[in-house]
Amino acid sequence: MANDGMLVAAMAPLLSSDIGILILLAIPLLSLASSLKLWDTLSLLLEFTTTSVPTIDVKLAAAESDDDGVTSKPDTSKKVQLRDPERKGFVQCYDPSTLQHLGEVPAMTKEDVDAICAKAAKAQKSWSRTTYAQRRLVMRTIQKYIVNHVEDICRVCTRDSGKPKVDALLGEVMTTCEKIRTINANGEEWLRRQYRPSGPMMMHKTAYVEYVPFGVLGVIAPWNYPFHNMLNHIISGLFSGNAVVSKCSEHTSWSSDYFGRIVKAALVECGHDPDIVQTVTGFGEAGSALVSSSYVDKIIFTGSPGVGRLVMEGCSKNLKPVILELGGKDPMVFCDDVKIKDVVPWAMRGCFQNCGQNCCGVERLFVYESIVTEFIDTVLPRVKGLRQGVPLKTCGSDGDVDCGAMVMDAQMDHIQALVDDAVSKGATLHCGGKRNDKLDGQFYVPTLLSGVTADMKISTEEVFGPIMCIVTVPNDDDEKCVEMINACSFGLGSSVYSASQKRGMKIGKQLRSGMFTVNDFGVNYLIQSLPFGGVGESGFDRFAGPEGLRACCLERSIVEDRIPGVRTTIPSPIDYPIDIRKGLPFGTSLVNLFYNESLLGKIKAIFGLIKYG
């Protein structure tokens, strides 16, 4: 989901000069001033300059604080099992890159989940009465810890999910910090009372919408970005006044304990009940228990369409609202007028960031026919040159790798089946296309396929792995390109590259997706004021932006007297018992008074009201 390392390349020219650095430092304040009213801006600046942010201390185990801190030997059988028959009631945790055993966490039962949801619901009562300033202080405390412990957080993410530390920095840490910054700068404004026009008939009334916390948000998070996927919804949930119960994936359960300790330590340091944030560990049964818990008021699910349907079915039994973010099959388009050397780096980052395990990663690369040969010749050496291995300095590795491990071993079987199907139907395999047998962990060799066509499963099914799939756009035809892209049932993100921004925009606006960028990739996720989500098999509803923050709340419509004492009365012709001889013509006169567009009709309506009133 979070694959936004591209920001670094964009910032490089500014970082090369003192003036550029000053501009970068000024951007947050300028952005703040432009998005809020002056008084709001001054109030926030005063708050941020006069309030001391607490420093929290979170004790780390050796495996969390040291690259070489795991003493267990790798399981070279490559048959690691999360369920150990001799340790029922626990989830076994492994480093996917070394297959070292990291420990175990409880596999919670329905009773366990209900108990912690009840704790969260109880704590939420007092949390909902906190001020936005108090909530911002908690967020700032968390962010201060993150900034001061970047390497520790990256190490833990790397150890649990197999990604290189740089990928953890870009996709886990940077995105989370930007989420906090955006919420602190804009969240209060986004949740402020929204006044609505009351119309001429109700001109004596004041109408508005208030955003009221749901109560307890249940979050079922995926395994690809364990830190960000957990903190992302905790930040929105807490800021909007909710408690949050987060069910982490059984494949990345080990790291959730550390991440939970960070949030709870910040809450305690700021004087709040840490029970408003809870972590559920376990298998599918624990997730089902969270969905069905009577203490949970809304579910936010990120994962596969198949499991998403089960979650939605579970929510339907109690008419519980749900947000579904179900992954994608994102296209990247290279028109015939692009410069190959400029776009190849974006193709590499889009396809191989986090070993391709991104819901908004590039899974379909549409390259126009006249440049496809040159593109393949240019990109192939770079794909072959990707260094793959253990991303930490342990087990004989120096940690200098570009591409890490796959979190799930079973995912590699799925990828292999898709690659084999494509090759059998005529796709060209230029490199990769198999597990990396030279390494002991769960590694799939970075792969380049070209000649991918619509009849191949890999063109429509989510891959979620290090595969670059090149689809040739015949005759450099823009309309054909749009048609080919929209034939897919997924619709999360998309990106179009062209020397003509107008052309790129024209193509992009025709794509069936929740998000698209022109001549860029992934940056919309780093602009946290934008909503995130898709259509079709990619799910529905949104998180991030004002839409995502408000999705954590009940939208309550409120009407009150504009002037105390001036109230609505029921005219006698339509009061019970109704005189049908007067009631109907009186009501008809009302309709004509307010909705007849002719002046004569309105004048007649006034006389009708006098006559029958």
UniProtKB/TrEMBL annotation:
Active-site positions on this chain: E325
Aldehyde dehydrogenase domain boundaries: 90-553
Family matches, as SUPFAM superfamilies: ALDH-like
Pfam family, one: Aldedh
Key words of the record: Oxidoreductase
GO molecular function, one term: oxidoreductase activity, acting on the aldehyde or oxo group of donors, NAD or NADP as acceptor
PANTHER family on file: ALDEHYDE DEHYDROGENASE-RELATED
Family per record: Belongs to the aldehyde dehydrogenase family.
Name of this chain's protein: Aldehyde dehydrogenase domain-containing protein
Source organism per UniProt: Ditylum brightwellii
